[in-house]
Structures are given as C-alpha cells and as structure tokens.
Specification:
This protein is α/β, with parallel strands linked by helices. It has a single domain, classed as Rossmann fold, CATH 3.40.50. The chain is built from nine helices and eight strands. The strands form three sheets. The chain has a four-stranded parallel β-sheet. A two-stranded antiparallel sheet has the order 1-2. It has a two-stranded antiparallel sheet with strand order 5-6. Helix 9 links the parallel strand 7 and strand 8. Helix 4 packs across helix 6. The protein is globular, with a radius of gyration of 19 Å. Bound molecules: zinc ion (2 copies). The site of one zinc ion (ZN) has 8 residues, from helix 2. One zinc ion binds next to loops.
C-alpha cells in the first residue's frame, strides 16, 4: 500500500472510531466539514439579514436605527456615540445557539479548529461593510498574560489570523495588555467602561499612525473592551478603528430587545 493510500485508510479508520461532531449541536458529521454540521451552518448563514446597531451590536428588533453621520454606522436609540471610540462594529449574530455553542466549544473545550469557520463568517460580514476596503491591518484584542497562560491561547488571535487571511490584509499585534483587571463579566455595564480604562498600550506606533485598523474579538457584551482598545489605538494616531466580533450578547427582555443598565 502506498503512503497516501495508507494515510487515507488510517484517516477513515480514525473517522470511524472517533466520529467528528458538530461544534454546536454535537451531531456526528463527516470529517472535513469544518467542524459545523450543514444545518448549523445554514442557521448562521441566515443571520446576514438581521439588522443591528452599528455601535453596541444589539438586535434592532422592531426599533428603527438612526442613520449615523457620514461614513458612520446606523445606531440604536440607546447608544451614545460619544461613549464608543470605534467607528462601527460588525458582528455575525447574537450570542445565541448555534453561535454561542460554537464559541464555548472553541474557547473552553479545545475546539481550536472552529477558529476556521468562525473567522470565515466574521470576515464575510466585515467584507459586506462599507468600511471594509479601507482596512490596512487586522488587530487581535490581546489578553493579559495571566489569562492567556491560563487558557493556553488567545481566541481573538486565532480568529484574527483567519479574518486577516480571508480579507487579504496583514494581522498586526499593535496592542499590549500590561494591566490585569477583574473579568468584565463580573461587573455591571455601568462599571465596565471604567474598569477597563488604561489596560491596553499601543505597540509599534509607526504602524499605528495614520492607519485604518480593524479590531477582532470573539464576543462583545457592552463594547467597553473594544472601545478602550480603539481609544488606545486612536490616541496613538490611528486614522480610524473598526471592530469585528463573532457574536454580541444580549440580555433577554419581554420584547426581545436588550434592556441595559443606565
Ligand atoms: Zn450542528
Ligand atoms: Zn446601540
């Protein structure tokens, strides 16, 4: 038996012994499907028509979005444009199954290969934005080294690699995160913008100055982390900063729209 034939045979055998499962719904799927079953893929592809606020990323639901200033995203009635230091946010969908399941699998259950489909979807949504052509570089949101060490990888970096490759732009590590703060998840929204203040610093200022940058992260909850990252890059001279996430988490309300802390 030739080596490639042997490899194929071994691959088939392993496939029988350890069937690949969909990262979201866990049904067994044939190897080579990218870790997501066809049904979950079509659910995610169906999210393209959802309208959402270009700053906080929340579903627009029955509410009309206000058109932004020239070149700015349309925003919801609850968003204070002054609060956000990125110009617009792109998302694949809300933090709901199957996206939420895929992200959990990707971050906490060793599902690193899921960076492939998640990053591809992210890139497809960025490509559809009017600002996509202006991006000079893709910038992952860094973790503090203690977080990164604990997790073993930075999920934003794995996604940013795929997004950058798909967009044909370089990935640039233009942010450092020297300051450790309590996880944002433990704080109410009103405190998140304060808690995160000053945690990032800009690296390679010559690559930041005058450039249009696209931050990449997995999940956006209030936008505080992305906004602080954007503030840091803009203070270092970036011409404009945009943000791309896989999902935006939305607290449930009786009428399906996020109700947030004042
Ligand atoms: Zn599935
Ligand atoms: Zn909003």
């Amino acid at each position: 038996m030739s080596v490639p034939a042997m490899r194929r045979w071994l691959g088939d055998l392993l496939g029988l012994m350890f069937p690949v499962r969909c990262g979201a719904c866990r049904v067994p799927i044939p190897p080579g499907e990218g870790g997501v079953c066809a049904e979950c893929q079509s659910l995610v592809l169906g999210l393209v028509d959802q309208s959402y606020c270009g700053l906080c990323g929340q579903d627009a639901g029955p509410f009309a979005l206000r058109p932004g200033a020239a070149g700015q995203a349309a925003v919801c009635g609850l968003c204070d444009a002054e609060l956000y230091r990125y110009a617009a946010l792109s998302r694949v969908g809300a933090y709901e199954p199957p996206l939420s399941d895929l992200i959990k699998q990707f971050k906490y259950a060793g599902g690193h290969p899921l960076a492939g489909p998640l990053g591809e979807w992210q890139a497809a949504h960025v490509s559809a934005q009017p600002w996509a052509a202006r991006i000079d570089a893709v910038v992952p949101v860094p973790l503090h080294w203690r977080r990164r060490w604990g997790r073993g990888f930075n999920q934003s970096e794995l996604l940013a690699e795929v997004v950058a490759a798909r967009l044909g732009k370089p990935m640039a590590h233009l942010l450092a995160r020297p300051v450790h703060r309590p996880p944002q998840a433990s704080l109410p929204r009103s405190q998140r913008f304060e808690n995160i203040r000053g945690v990032f610093s800009a690296r390679h200022p010559r690559e930041v100055r005058g450039r249009t940058l696209c931050l990449v992260d997995d999940v956006c909850t209030t936008g505080a982390t992305l906004s602080e990252a954007a503030r840091t890059l803009r203070n270092a001279g970036a011409a404009a900063v945009y943000a791309a996430v896989v999902a935006v988490s939305q607290p449930p309300t009786p009428f399906g729209r996020a109700m947030r802390d004042p």
